[in-house]
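Chapter review: from sequence to fold.
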Amino acid sequence: MSTMIEFENVSRIYKSGDHELKALDNLSLKIEKGEFVVILGPSGAGKSTLLNLLGGLDTATSGKIIVDGQNIVDFNDDELTKYRAKSVGFIFQFYNLIPNLTAKENVELMKDITDVDVNGDEILESVGLTGHGNQFPAQLSGGEQQRVSIARALAKEPAMLLCDEPTGALDSNTGVLILSLLQNKCHEK
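The token string follows.
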């Protein structure tokens, strides 16, 4: 395998007046292509910060974040937007669904930012939501909304999928199903 992601001495420090919060302090790590990685730690350990940096949603205070040979720390806003649209799929703790779009429409939004042909019904079926495509987010349970969010992220077939507590709102059986699906997608793609 070859290296897909490399953090080289990455720090992210948030400042508020005289107070500094080191969310990440001189972090170095490598992730190989095709690798399925889980980051564990207590609340406040920097897990979400790491994901936000890797996804181009936040900027490092220092260090290099190299993705597929490119240091994304050096990207300008347009380059970051293209990077996020093409290479990154996000599954957030909060589902970020558009409330006036159906589940299927939320998934098929990916057609607007990628060249992938998206079949919303098929992708919803893969996360156990057959028959829910015409329902709006308010008509779905929290776990169903989370699965729509997962389906939307999978729809664009990103080079990497960043998941921040992807099974937090799911029962244990559905959580296992979703983790298996994510692991299988990792190995397939």
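Two observations follow directly from the output. The two ends are 14 Å apart (CA to CA). The first strand starts at residue 3 and ends at 16.
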